[in-house]
Amino acid sequence: MTPSAHERAFGLAYDALRARWPGSTEERDVDTPYGPTRVHVHGPVDGPPLVLLPGGSATGLVWFANAPALGARYRVHAVDLLGDAGRTERRGRSLKGADDLTAWLDALLDGLGLTRAHLCGHSYGAWLAARYALHAPERVDRLALVDPTRVFTGFRPGYLLRALPVLIRPTEARARAFLAWETAGTHPDEAWQRLYALASTTPGRKLVAGGRPRIADLRPPLLVLLAERSRTHRAAEVADRVRRTLPEAEAVLLPGATHHSLPLTAPERLDERLLAFLG
Q1: φ and ψ at 141, to 5 degrees?
Q2: Angle 153-143-55 (CA atoms, 0-180°, nearest 5)?
Q3: What digits encode the pLDDT tens for the residues 177-199?
Q4: pTM across the whole model
C-alpha cells in the first residue's frame, strides 16, 4: 500500500530525530500479544536496565538528549507507546483499557529479557509507569515520574481548554500553537516539535485512559521531578501532596521547565537528579 502524505512526513520527521541518538543505539521490535513494540536501546549490555516511557505524541525518541548521560551507566530502553504514534504497531489482542497497557508492559519486559528494571515515565508515560509499579512492584527497582499527569492531581481547567481543540480536531498548526503556549520561553528542539505536531494528527491513535493510581500503595523507591512552570498542574502543590502521601519519596522542582519542554530541554538538570536517584 502506498503511504499517505502524512505517513511520509511522519517517517521523515521520525528518522530525523532518530539520527540525534548516539550512533551505537539499537532498534528492536519486540513481539507482544498486542503487536510489535519499537524500543530504542542504548548503553552497556551489562548495565542495569532503565526503561523510559514518553508522554503522549512524544514517541520514545524524545529522550535523545538524555540518552548519552543515562546510557553511560545504564542500559536504556526507550519505548514507543502502544496506541500512540510511532513505530509500535497494534496487531493481535485489542487495546481496550489500562489493564491492557500493564499486560503489554509485562510482555514487553519479558521480550526484552528483563526480570526487573528501573522505570521512568514522563506525563502520560508517568501515569502508566505508576500503574505498572502498582501492578508488578517486584519488577520495578526504582520508579521516577517526570511531571506526571493524573497521578497526584488532575489537569488544570485552563490547560484542558487549550488542549481541547487539538484533541477534537487535531491539525499541525493547532498542535504547534498549543506547544508554543505551554513551552513559552524554553524553546524545545525544532525537530522534536515537528514530530510532535505530526504525531498529534496521526489517524488511529488510541491513548487509553483510566483512574488515578492509588499512590499511597506504591512500594518502589520514588522520585518525582516536577516542571516549575508546568501549565498542566501547580507544581508546588503536587510536590506538597507527594511529600504528605509518601514521606520517603523525593519531590524536586526543575527550575524554568514547563511540562512539554521535558525531558529534552536543559536535560543536564534532569539527568543529574535521575542519576543520583538511581544510584
Answers
A1: -70, -60
A2: 60
A3: 999 999 999 999 999 999 999 99
A4: 0.98
